[in-house]
Each structure stands twice: as structure tokens, then as C-alpha cells.
Automatic annotation (TrEMBL):
Pathway: Carbohydrate acid metabolism. Its EC number is 2.7.1.12. PANTHER family: GLUCONOKINASE-RELATED. SUPFAM superfamilies: P-loop containing nucleoside triphosphate hydrolases. This is Gluconokinase. The lineage of its organism: Bacteria, Pseudomonadati, Pseudomonadota, Betaproteobacteria, Burkholderiales. It comes from Paraburkholderia solisilvae.
């Protein structure tokens, strides 16, 4: 099984992804690690990424997913996965890939971004991400509110996985 923690910046993808991997006793990979230096520089400067910027990034993450599957390993990845077409690339028709949508209000996300340090993402890009976001339906993802504690979010995800 491959889980992908998704959502806009500030939703807690890395923290939740790490906790899920710990609880599932599997590997964790942060999708941000696959961004090119040029993508990171653009985001640091407050310039939104285009689809053309994202295609190679998404394909690289998909290749990493396939590598885990070839090794017969479960894993948790993070990736904003803002559009359905992005999720389609990551999923590639694979029923073994499950998205976990970390959903939050603009106010909570802004607050989190303002207090975050050491990340290349410029908080001014939040609106661009919210504008780009195509929220997944129940057919595409497990949805969990980020208003819960990280432990409650993970418990909720694991409970919902049982019924999938």
C-alpha cells in the first residue's frame, strides 16, 4: 500500500506523513525532496509553479512509488497533489495508491505558515495553491480535518483505511 498525504502548504503533510509511516512501520518520503532547484527557487521568491514546472516533479514521485512497489514495500509519501490530473499521474491507475487529503480553513493554514520556519515555501503562495486546489471526492481520497491533533488525524486515517 502507498499512502500520499496531500493538501496545500501548511496542512501538515510532512508531520502526518511521518506519523503514518511510524504507525504503519513503513518508509516515508517527502515529495518536496523531488522538486528541482529551479522549482524551489521560484517558490522561495513567491512565484507560483506552473503545470509545466510540476510535470517532471510528479513523474519523479511516481517513479519513486513504483520503485517501492517493485521492492514490495509499503510507503507513505507527501505531495500537494492539488489537481485531479496530478493525482492521476501519481496514481497511474494503481489501486494500491491511496490519497489522504488534509483539509483546513484558510485561517488555520495562514496561521501555520506564519509560524513555520526553515521552509522554502513563501507563505504568500497560499492563495495560489487554494485557487489551484481541486478537492478530491470520497472516491479519490480519505479526507481529514487538520483541526484535529496530529495523533487524532492519524487515528482517523487508519480507521478509514479499514473500510476501504
Amino acid at each position: 500500500m502507498i499512502l500520499i498525504a496531500m493538501g496545500v502548504s501548511g496542512a501538515g503533510k510532512t508531520r502526518i506523513g511521518e506519523l503514518l509511516a511510524e504507525r504503519l512501520r513503513c518508509g516515508f518520503t517527502d515529495g518536496d525532496a523531488f522538486h528541482s532547484a529551479a522549482n524551489k527557487e521560484k517558490m522561495h521568491k513567491g512565484i507560483p509553479l506552473t503545470d509545466e514546472d510540476r510535470w517532471p516533479w510528479l513523474k519523479t514521485i511516481r517513479a519513486a512509488i513504483e520503485e517501492k512497489q517493485r521492492a514490495n514495500e509499503d510507503a507513505v509519501f507527501t505531495c500537494s497533489s492539488l489537481k485531479r490530473v496530478y493525482r492521476d499521474i501519481l496514481r497511474d491507475g494503481d489501486k494500491d495508491v491511496c490519497f489522504v487529503y488534509l483539509k483546513g480553513t484558510r485561517e488555520v493554514l495562514e496561521e501555520r505558515l506564519q509560524t513555520r520556519t526553515g521552509h522554502f515555501f513563501d507563505p504568500s503562495l497560499l492563495q495560489s495553491q487554494l485557487d489551484t486546489l481541486e478537492e478530491p471526492g470520497d472516491d479519490e481520497a480519505i479526507t481529514v480535518s487538520i483541526d484535529l491533533t496530529p495523533e487524532q488525524i492519524v487515528d482517523n486515517v487508519l480507521e478509514q483505511l479499514k473500510t476501504r
